[in-house]
Amino acid sequence: MSNQLYGNDTPAGVKDAKGLHLITQSTPNGQKVQILLEELADVYGIEWTTTLINISTNEQKKDWFLRLNPNGRIPVIVDNSVSPPFPVMETSAELLYLLKFDKDGKFGFTDEFENSECLQWLFFWHGSGAPYQGNLGFFRRAAEKLPFAIERFRKETARVFGVLEIRLSGKYTGEPRDYLAGKGRGKYSVADIGTWTWVKNYSASGYTEEEMKEFPHLVKWVSCIAERPAVKKAIGEKYKNQ
Ligand SMILES: N[C@@H](CCC(=O)N[C@@H](CS)C(=O)NCC(=O)O)C(=O)O
């Protein structure tokens, strides 16, 4: 069967890419993968190329994009280091795929139980965090203001912030932690990366500093991860659309 991954309308930058290629926009979902790539570059010097698209023009709904990700959403990775090139969609799956380049296990876990914790928190945010905070943003920005919808997603987002606070504060374990997964105080991992890009936008989502006082460990976790050089690079100028 011939490889249908690329069509006539596939941008040259995507079709001709060598090695890893990231198609993104610097949104919370895009930033997850941007951060892990920058972290991997800092540790291992891995290389990739990037195509920045503008989702407000619906580029992600075009045929060339849907060939790579039928869900029509960014980010997507294409691994051209394998034959045929292998596309990866869905941010958490992308983070887990990229761990194959993390030879020393800096951002994931080899221990069975630590790995399970990492997956639990990664999936928790993917399934029970991002959809709420994403919909909160959607309804807050919508021209038609629907108070019921805004209130519903505002409450649910605050609730999942509370879940993260329980985890980080050690409320039920007696052991506060610095990161979501791993023994003891935990280790910075893809679970944190997958969650942080959303939670760090709490002000833009409409939560005041006063309201966030309910989640002191979470706010501290947000500030601490924000200091990482790879994180600063990944959410900065390098990924801004022209
Ligand atoms: N579940 C998907 C969500 C991806 C997603 O929603 N991406 C947004 C940007 S943050 C997007 O592409 N929106 C454009 C659209 O919905 O057409 C993932 O984790 O990869």
UniProtKB/TrEMBL annotation:
GST C-terminal domain segment(s): 111-242
For this protein, the record's InterPro entries field holds: Glutathione-S-Trfase_C-like, Glutathione-S-Trfase_C_sf, Glutathione_S-Trfase, Glutathione_S-Trfase_N, GST_C, Thioredoxin-like_sf
Show the CDD domains listed in the entry: GST_N_Ure2p_like
Could you tell me which Pfam families the record lists for this protein?
A: GST_C_3, GST_N_2
Highest taxon above the source species: Eukaryota
Annotated GST N-terminal domain ranges read 17-106
- Tell me the PANTHER family matching this sequence: GLUTATHIONE S-TRANSFERASE GSTA, GLUTATHIONE S-TRANSFERASE-RELATED
Question: Which family is annotated?
Answer: Belongs to the GST superfamily.
Name of the protein described by the UniProt record: Related to URE2-nitrogen catabolite repression regulator
